[in-house]
Write a structure and sequence with these properties.
Blueprint (H helix, E strand, L loop, with lengths): L1 E4 L2 E4 H25 L2 E4 L22 H6 L18 E10 L24 E12 L8 E4 L4 E5 L6 E7 L10 E2 L7 E4 L5 E3 L1 E4 L10 E7 L5 E3 L2 E5 L12 E7 L5 E3 L2 E12 L7 E2 L2 E3 L2 E12 L3 E2 L2 E3 L2 E11 L4 E2 L2 E3 L2 E12 L3 E2 L1 E4 L2 E11 L10 E4 L2 E3 L3 E5 L2 E3 L1 H7 L11 E2 L4 E3 L4 E4 L20 E2 L13 E2 L35
Parallel strand pairs: 3-4, 4-5, 5-7, 5-8, 6-10, 7-11, 8-9, 8-12, 10-13, 11-14, 12-15, 13-16, 14-17, 15-18, 16-18, 17-20, 18-21, 19-22, 20-23, 21-24, 23-26, 24-27, 25-28, 26-29, 27-30, 29-31, 30-32, 30-33, 32-35
Antiparallel strand pairs: 1-2, 33-34, 36-37, 38-39
Length: 516
C-alpha cells in the first residue's frame, strides 16, 4: 500500500524507515529532554537552599521561592543553570514565604525569574496549599514577570489552594506580614513579557494609598498574550487624606496589553474593575478578552481612557453596587465591543461617555437600577459611528438620558436619536426578571419557578440580543441570544474550578521521551 504525500508517493517501507530513524534520534536525545523539563520542590518548613538543582526532589526541597526563581539565595547574584528553566514546574508547599530587603522597582517583581519559559513549556510556579507571601520592605511587586516570557504563577482554586498577598502601598507603616510596593504599581505585575499567567491569587490592598497615583492589584503593561484568571482581589483605594478614589486605583489596569485574557476574577472595593489606560507603549492595546468576571462596589466597572488601541472584547461580566457600569473618557473607544454584561445598581450611570472614538458597540447588556442609563459628559448623544447601542434591556432608573441637551425619557431619547437602540430585536425598558437579584443570582427566568422558585414567568431579555461573538457556539454570529451576562444557566461568572484552555497555546511540535 502507498500513501500519498503532496505530489509524491511514500511507500510503507520508506515511511517505517523514517519513523525508525526519528525514534532512534529521539531516543538518543531523551536524557537531555527529560532533564530539561522536570519538577522542582520548595518547602518553607523543611527545605534547604544549599541543595543543588540536580539533587532537588520531593524529599530534598529548597526552602525559598527565590532559590527556584534566581538559582541562588541572592537576587543580585543569580545562577541561571541552577534556577527553574523552560518546562519546569516548581511545586511550592503551603506556608509563609518571607523576603527581607528592598528591590525598589515598580515593574520587576521580587521573584522575577532569571530564566524565561517558552511557548508550550512555561516556567510554572505552582502553590500546593496556602502560600503566604511577605515582603514588608520590598518597594516592588512580589510576583509576575518582567522581560521574562512564559512564566506562570498558579494555584488550584478547585483544591482550595492560593497565593495569599496582603499588600501595602502606603509611604510608611507597612506591617511585617505585608508586601510593600512603591508608587505607581501593585503587588502583581506582568511587564514587557509574553505569556505571563497569574491564577489563584487572593490579594488585599489594605488601607489604601496615602498619595495620588496608580494602585493596582494587577498591572499588565506592554504585555502580550498574558492571562489573569481566577483571582480574588479587593481594597484598592486611596485614603481620604490623599483624595477621592478614582479609576487609577483599580483591580486590574492594562497599559499596552495585546491579546490578553482576563477571566473568572472577582474584585471588590476599588476605583475600577478593569481600566484600559492610555499608554506610550509600542504595543497596540487590542485583542484583549475580558469575560466571566464579577465586580462589586467598584467606582467604574470598566473604564477607558485610551487612544492607541483597536478591538477589545468585554462580555459576560457582572458588576454590582458601583458608580458607573462603563465610563469612557479621553480618546474614547476604537472598535471595542462591550456586550452581554449585567450592570446592577450603578449609583451614577450604566454608561457614561463623550463624543470621541469610533466603531464602539454597547449591545445585549442589562442595566438594572442605574440612576441614569446614559450620561453624556459635556456633550450630546454620541453618534452611532462613535458608539452604537442596540438590543439592551433597561429597568428601574431615575432618568434615562442626561446630556447637554437636557434630560430625556426613554421615549424622547428614541425620538431624538433614531439610530440608537432600535434595531431588531429592539432595546426596551422592562424588568429582566433575574432569578434572584437580592441573593446575587442574575440568571434570567425562563418560566415560572425556573431556574429559581422566585421566578414568576419568562424574562423579556430572552432572545433579546444578537450573538455577535458566537457565545452559544453554534457557528452563527447573527442569531438571537439572551441579553445580559448569562447566555445559559450553566455559565460560571466569578471564580471557577475549571481549567482554562485559553493560554498558553498548544505546543507547536511533538517530542517523544524514551526512558530505559
Amino acid at each position: 500500500m502507498k500513501q500519498r504525500r503532496g505530489n509524491r508517493s511514500v511507500s510503507d517501507g520508506e515511511r517505517m524507515n523514517r519513523i525508525g530513524w526519528t525514534f532512534l534520534i529521539l531516543t538518543l536525545l531523551s536524557p537531555q529532554i527529560a532533564e530539561s523539563q522536570r519538577s522542582l520542590y520548595v518547602n518553607a518548613a523543611t527545605g534547604n537552599d544549599s541543595v543543588s538543582r540536580a539533587n532537588n526532589s520531593a524529599s530534598s526541597p529548597w526552602r525559598s521561592i527565590g532559590r527556584a526563581a534566581w538559582g541562588s539565595t541572592s537576587r543580585g547574584t543569580p545562577a541561571p543553570s541552577e534556577a527553574a528553566a523552560a518546562g519546569d514546574t516548581v511545586l511550592i508547599a503551603g506556608g509563609t514565604y518571607a523576603f527581607s530587603g528592598a528591590v525598589t522597582n515598580r515593574f520587576e517583581s521580587i521573584y522575577n525569574p532569571v530564566n524565561s519559559g517558552s511557548s508550550g513549556s512555561p516556567i510554572s510556579f505552582v502553590c500546593t496549599g496556602q502560600c503566604v507571601l511577605e515582603a514588608p520592605q520590598a518597594n516592588s511587586p512580589v510576583i509576575g514577570a518582567s522581560s521574562r516570557n512564559f512564566v506562570k504563577w498558579f494555584a488550584d482554586v478547585g483544591a482550595g489552594h492560593s497565593w495569599s498577598i496582603q499588600a501595602c502601598g502606603r509611604t510608611s507603616g507597612c506591617a511585617s506580614n505585608t508586601v510593600n510596593t512603591t508608587a505607581d504599581t501593585g503587588p502583581v505585575v506582568c511587564h514587557a513579557a509574553t505569556g505571563c499567567w497569574v491564577e489563584g491569587a487572593v490579594i488585599d490592598g489594605g488601607l489604601g494609598i496615602d498619595y495620588a497615583d496608580n494602585w493596582n492589584a494587577v498591572r499588565i503593561e506592554n504585555c502580550t498574550s498574558c492571562t489573569i484568571r481566577n483571582n480574588d482581589m479587593r481594597n484598592f483605594t486611596r485614603d481620604a487624606v490623599a483624595g477621592n478614589t478614582n479609576h487609577n486605583q483599580s483591580i486590574i489596569t492594562l497599559y499596552g496589553s495585546l491579546n490578553s485574557v482576563v477571566e473568572h476574577n472577582v474584585g471588590a472595593n476599588a476605583g475600577s474593575g478593569v481600566y484600559f489606560k492610555d499608554t506610550g507603549s509600542s504595543n497596540p492595546q487590542s485583542g484583549n478578552i475580558i469575560r466571566f468576571n464579577r465586580f462589586d462596589n467598584v467606582g467604574e466597572a470598566f473604564a477607558f481612557s485610551i487612544t492607541a488601541e483597536d478591538r477589545n472584547f468585554i462580555y459576560q461580566n457582572v458588576a454590582t453596587n458601583g458608580q458607573y457600569g462603563v465610563a469612557i473618557v479621553g480618546g474614547g473607544l476604537s472598535n471595542d465591543w462591550i456586550f452581554n454584561n449585567t450592570f446592577y445598581r450603578m449609583a451614577q450611570a450604566g454608561l457614561s461617555g463623550g463624543p470621541s472614538g469610533s466603531g464602539g458597540r454597547f449591545w445585549n447588556n442589562i442595566c438594572f437600577d442605574c440612576d441614569r442609563m446614559i450620561y453624556v459628559n459635556g456633550g450630546v448623544m454620541f453618534s452611532e459611528s462613535t458608539l452604537d447601542l442596540e438590543h439592551n434591556v433597561y429597568f428601574d432608573f431615575t432618568q434615562f438620558y442626561t446630556g447637554t441637551d437636557g434630560n430625556r425619557t426613554f421615549a424622547s431619547y428614541l425620538g431624538a436619536y433614531p439610530t440608537q437602540d432600535q434595531s431588531a430585536p429592539v432595546s426596551l425598558v422592562a424588568d429582566p426578571l433575574f432569578a434572584s437579584a437580592g441573593s446575587g443570582d442574575f440568571r434570567l427566568c425562563t418560566s415560572a419557578s425556573t431556574p429559581s422558585n422566585t421566578c414568576s414567568g419568562s424574562s423579556p431579555a430572552l432572545a433579546r440580543g444578537i450573538d455577535i461573538h458566537d457565545l452559544d457556539r453554534d457557528g452563527s454570529t447573527s442569531d438571537t441570544i439572551r441579553a445580559g451576562a448569562y447566555v445559559n444557566d450553566l455559565d460560571i461568572i466569578g471564580r471557577t474550578a475549571a481549567q482554562s484552555n485559553s493560554a498558553p497555546g498548544a505546543p507547536t511540535n511533538f517530542q517523544i521521551v524514551v526512558t530505559p
